[in-house]
Design brief:
Helices cover 52% and strands 4% of the residues. It is mainly α. The chain has one domain. The protein has a two-stranded antiparallel ribbon. α1 packs antiparallel against α3. It is elongated and about 55 Å long. It starts with 15 loop residues before the first strand and ends in a 16-residue tail after the last strand. 0% of the residues are buried.
Length: 90
Amino acid sequence: MDHIDPPHFKAGEADYTISEAQHDSLWRAYYAVTLLAALNNDLVSQTGITADSTAAVADYVREALLEVVLHAQRIHPGQEETSTAPNDLL
C-alpha cells in the first residue's frame, strides 16, 4: 500500500475510530474505485468488460463502505448520546 501520512486532528475533531481490518477494507475499496475510474469506452469494448462487471465492483465498494461505517466506534462515547451505533454516519 502507498504510504500516506495520517491527518492530524485537534481534540474533538476525530469522533470515530476503525479497526486495522476496516482500514484495509477501505484501501481495497479505494483501489477498486480507482480501477473503475481508469476504464474508458475503448478499453471496456476491447476487454469485454460488461455493465454487470462494473456494477459488481460498485456493489462491493458500497458494501465495504457500509460495513466500515456500521462498525466505526465512537472515541468518546456518551458525549452526545448513549447509543454505540454510529447512526449519524449513515
